[in-house]
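Milestone 3.1: sequence recovery, worked example.
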């Protein structure tokens, strides 16, 4: 496993390793991010991160605020492709970008 790819069978240790890389060294994380592959591993990472956030939000703010935050995160996840993926795809195609984070988005089936 690389430092920038979360794989489910690496367990909690792999999740923490990738999370640390994202939080402590974001430039390094995105510089080494793979430009090929599927969305399964990033979506699993997102789901685990969302569950941790929800639990922390319940503990800190209570259930009503946590449900509200969870709803907003779900909306962002659902509509994120529309608002982020299409512009990034257009940006990458116009500039001929084939490597790095901008190339990752168009390769995942963006319009």
């Amino acid at each position: 496993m690389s430092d920038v790819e979360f794989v489910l069978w690496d367990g909690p240790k792999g999740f923490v390793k990738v999370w640390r890389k994202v939080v402590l060294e974001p430039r390094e994380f995105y510089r080494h991010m793979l430009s090929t592959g599927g969305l399964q591993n990033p979506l699993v990472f997102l789901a685990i991160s969302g569950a941790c956030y929800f639990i922390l939000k319940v503990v800190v703010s209570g259930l009503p605020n946590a449900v509200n935050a969870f709803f907003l995160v779900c909306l962002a996840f659902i509509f994120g492709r529309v608002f982020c993926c299409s512009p990034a795809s257009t940006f990458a195609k116009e500039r001929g970008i084939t490597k790095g984070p901008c190339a990752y988005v168009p390769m995942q089936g963006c319009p």
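The CA atoms of residues 10 and 82 lie 31 Å apart. The two ends are 30 Å apart (CA to CA).
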